Amino acid sequence: MTEVSVAKDSVAATDELVVLKSVNKHFGALHVLQDIDLTITRGEVVVVIGPSGSGKSTLCRTINRLETIDAGEILIDGKSLPQEGKELARLRADVGMVFQSFNLFAHKTVLENVMLGQIKVRRTDKQKAEEKARALLDRVGVGTQADKYPAQLSGGQQQRVAIARALAMDPKVILFDEPTSALDPEMINEVLEVMQQLARDGMTMVVVTHEMGFARSAANRVVFMADGRIVEEATPEQFFSAPRSDRAKDFLSKIL
Ligand code: ADP
Ligand code: MG
């Protein structure tokens, strides 16, 4: 059964979806990312936590080249991200991003927000893009809002549109940078529930969040950052019950 073993091998070879090798980045004198080694496998949900200013957002932004790096390497599904050009746009589209501040296009309707990238980057025809956008808006529970503008929606609804927009590109991984931090408390759960469902569906996710309930229930792994370094990595059970580093113990004592 040569065919079967070949297929297995090819799956194993691409199992590492996001690989950061000795990634270093400075902002002037600030060494914001220091020797970051991180491998995220297909289907894994990694929650990144750590104090404000520890480099979590910068880490996310380097993964899809919203920020350049000074040294090291980042591989997405086995491919190194090029510096620029069409190849970068295509590879970047494999990495979805959901921001704290939603970042929807204010002058486009909800439906147009979810169609745009499909048409511009994925070259999907308009009718297919609209069908997919409507299906995704239904999936995140905002199908009836399709013709409104972002400002007419609640924060929780806008963030669910942002998730639909990310999904519309068929990303291999989605990065969430504090997706619920800007939301009123009563809207946090409706966004976390959509994210929980994505995790159950097998989406590969990197989630920067202070929502420890989400980390406990959805994460395969917790990565704790401080001062630009990964200080500790563990399962949520291990991390929350018995953090090893003093930095993590101190951090948890403040937020739990
Ligand atoms: P976190 O998301 O963990 O709060 P950030 O990645 O946003 O941390 O920031 C890490 C450090 O880098 C902070 O000290 C921040 O002030 C600094 N920083 C972030 N972005 C820039 C930038 N574009 N220019 C200069 N310094 C920056
Ligand atoms: Mg941040």
TrEMBL record:
It is found in: Cell membrane. The keyword Cell membrane applies. GO terms for molecular function: ATP binding. Gene3D superfamilies: P-loop containing nucleotide triphosphate hydrolases. SUPFAM superfamilies: P-loop containing nucleoside triphosphate hydrolases. Keywords: Amino-acid transport, ATP-binding, Cell membrane, Membrane, Nucleotide-binding, Transport. InterPro entries: AAA+_ATPase (IPR003593), ABC_ATPase_HisP-typ (IPR030679), ABC_transporter-like_ATP-bd (IPR003439), ABC_transporter-like_CS (IPR017871), MetN_ABC_transporter-like (IPR050086), P-loop_NTPase (IPR027417). It is a peripheral membrane protein. Its main location: membrane. The keyword Transmembrane helix does not apply. Residues 18-252 form the ABC transporter domain. PROSITE patterns: ABC_TRANSPORTER_1, ABC_TRANSPORTER_2. Pfam families: ABC_tran. Belongs to the ABC transporter superfamily. This is Amino acid ABC transporter ATP-binding protein. It comes from Streptomyces cynarae.
